[in-house]
């Protein structure tokens, strides 16, 4: 069993990481690092992922639990 805060998995979470999800994470962090705003030019699914990632990162930073 793996868990963190309110999230738990009965299988290794690494098995859910795909090449596409890694590419999305990399794009998110590059855009954030370079200050490139999220825009309407990206697909809705990716924009949704970016919003979720941003919210989770802000929550971690606010709680002082960021691991970067």
Description of the structure:
The chain has 68 residues and is mainly alpha-helical. It has one domain. Helix content is 53%, strand content 9%. The chain has helices spanning 19-34, 44-63, and strands at 2-4, 7-9. It has a two-stranded antiparallel sheet with strand order 1-2. It starts with a strand and ends in a 5-residue tail after the last helix.
H/E element order? EEHH
Q: Approximately how much helix is present in the residues?
A: 40-55%
**Total discrete domains:** 1
Mean pLDDT: 81
Key terms for this structure?
single chain, 68 residues, mainly alpha, two-stranded antiparallel sheet, 53% helix, globular
Question: What's the topology here?
Answer:
Elements: E1 2-4, E2 7-9, H1 19-34, H2 44-63
Summarize the structure.
The chain is mainly alpha-helical.
């Amino acid at each position: 069993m793996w868990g963190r805060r309110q999230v738990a998995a009965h299988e290794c979470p690494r098995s859910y990481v795909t090449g596409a999800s890694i590419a999305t994470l990399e794009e998110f962090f590059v855009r954030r690092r370079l200050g490139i705003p999220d825009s309407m030019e990206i697909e809705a699914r990716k924009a949704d992922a970016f919003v979720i990632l941003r919210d989770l990162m802000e929550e971690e930073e606010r709680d002082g639990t960021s691991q970067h």
